[in-house]
Amino acid sequence: MKLADILSIVENDYAVPVGADLQGITFELEANLGSLKLAVRDNSFEILYTWCTKGLYNDSELIALGNRMITNLFVGLGETETDSVLLRSFSALTFCGVLNADRLFSEGKIEGRKSFLTSDLLNKWLEKTIEFFISEQDYRGYIDESSWAHSIAHCGDLLKQFVNNQHLKKDGHKRILDALAKKLVYPTNQVFTTNEDGRLGRVVAAIWKRNLISPVDFEKWLQQIVNPFSDKIWNLWKLDPSTFNVRLNARVNSRLFLHSLYFILLFGSQGIFGPNDLHFKRMSEYRDLVAQGIKKLDSNGFYYHEEK
Hints:
Oligomer: single chain
Number of helices: 14
């Protein structure tokens, strides 16, 4: 599909071209999700997402689209600084459209449509998404040649859609939290540079809003992030100088993430909760726990500590 044809759909309020085969165009747009051309890739994703959330696909078509996006998440997985990241990243965003459609249908936002997902299918998809998230090694945000890759951030957007789904219960939220902790503490050659920490923090904000995780469970989860880095940096270096940089990067990513969580709890998170929401008013306990975690990561004494 040529760019002019893609832009024509966007300019016509995402209407399916007269006389066109919806599934045929869908397959053409999916093929563009890994395109090196920004306008082709971005607009193809936006059309697919919009068609999902407007209810243009029937239930079986949405499930099939979700399955194809899951397959795309594993193309080139484990590679770094290759173009395959574009397909994975923008397939994650397109997959968001499938999950968001189910939420909109279940809330009665699209006339005549009801939730099409089952708990079993949603949890199967979540398991594969977590596998992709943990295994993704390309942390690049903005890349000059093709604009945004941002696979880590886009996977955060996808995990947030899972959190928001009515079929995902407390156990699913715990699995997502555990995956976040595992990813953050894993040694890496790359640090977050384009607000990946904030996008992942919004996943936790969505979990707080659904209120299935208690402060006690949350505190236990925080320790998964804090405990690996509570020793002094010098001791971290002495442990194994050859791997110090990758472990230090993981520590930096974990600190950035906790800082983002703290300010989400201080100011709210756009589209999730704000200062006037009931969800926000019960967040002070969580904010104190995050602050304690940040202070525990302060192994070099930048913050004030009582004399022992």
